[in-house]
């Protein structure tokens, strides 16, 4: 099965802060864990940490939880829109020197699903930051608003009202649920 992967990390090349997987299978539970971030960048402190919405776990717990979450799937495919997402997910599966968490098989796919351009000009990254955390947003929207087949949630538009959107922290973003 395909899982849509998103991570948050502490600046370019920085330490992992959170990891989310949203399965393509409707009704399947998402995976979401966060790590403690003791020295966040200014941007992370302002935009990421206030909306994590979970108690941080240890790196060992995150890796074990990730492997356990995927353990019943004989061929998990994690789809990401950014290379660092794949790097952080791979590193989370390392349990220690020469050891990995128990997972038989895993595949990764890098795609341009959200319109990211590898030739971004200065300032474009700020516009794209409003679209970050797509998997986190979808997971929280599915949990809080439900995931009826074919639902299209347009936050702050004609779809979900602002009060419900604020409850899951997705104001100003567009999310497709149940797709």
Features:
single chain, alpha/beta, two-stranded antiparallel ribbon, 9 strands, disordered C terminus
Explain this structure:
The chain is of the alpha/beta class. The chain is globular. It has helices at residues 42-47, 59-70, 83-92, 124-129, 134-145, 162-168; strands at residues 2-9, 16-23, 31-34, 77-80, 94-96, 99-100, 107-110, 152-154, 174-176. The strands form three sheets. Strands 3-2-1-4-7 form a five-stranded mixed β-sheet, with helices on both faces. The chain has a two-stranded antiparallel ribbon with strand order 5-6. It contains six helices and nine strands. Helix content is 30%, strand content 22%. α5 packs across α6.
H and E order = EEEHHEHEEEHHEHE
Task: Give the radius of gyration.
Answer: 16 Å
Q: pLDDT under 50 segments (min length 5)?
A: 121-134, 144-179
Counted by DSSP, the helix tally is: 6
Sheet bearing the most strands, described?
5 strands, mixed
Strand content: 15-25%
Number of strands: 9
What general outline do the C-alpha atoms trace?
A: globular
Output the strand order for the largest sheet: 3-2-1-4-7
Chain-averaged pLDDT:
75
What's the arrangement of secondary structure elements?
Layout: E1 2-9, E2 16-23, E3 31-34, H1 42-47, H2 59-70, E4 77-80, H3 83-92, E5 94-96, E6 99-100, E7 107-110, H4 124-129, H5 134-145, E8 152-154, H6 162-168, E9 174-176
Parallel strand pairs: 1-4, 4-7
Antiparallel strand pairs: 1-2, 2-3, 5-6, 8-9
Helix pairs in contact: 5-6
Summed up:
By secondary structure, the chain is of the alpha/beta class. The protein has helices at 42-47, 59-70, 83-92, 124-129, 134-145, 162-168, and strands at residues 2-9, 16-23, 31-34, 77-80, 94-96, 99-100, 107-110, 152-154, 174-176.
